[in-house]
Amino acid sequence: MDALLSLILLGVQIYSFMLIGYIFMSWFPGARESQFGQFLAKACEPYLEPFRKFVPPLGMIDISPIVAIITLHLASQGLIVLFGMLF
Length: 87
Hints:
By secondary structure, this protein is mainly alpha-helical. It has one domain (2-86). It has helices at residues 2-25, 35-54, 64-86. Helix 1 (2-25) packs across helix 2 (35-54), helix 1 runs antiparallel to helix 3 (64-86) and helix 2 (35-54) packs across helix 3. Keywords: Membrane, Transmembrane, Transmembrane helix. Belongs to the YggT family. The chain crosses the membrane at residues 7-28, 63-86.
């Protein structure tokens, strides 16, 4: 079961890096229109969309991706605790 937990945590970490990359792509004009940008958009937007509905932007700064990454991190910590209790 430790291998399964490690695999899940690795997936969460990779997804976090994808989210960070997608966020940074907004700083460069045309980056999100590239093939890699479109791939990241398809992977990240479904997760980010609910956070954008509930977390309002602060001026011109959208903090919803930060909240999404923190939530993802907290969920992974919850999985560690859950696996620790079950196994």
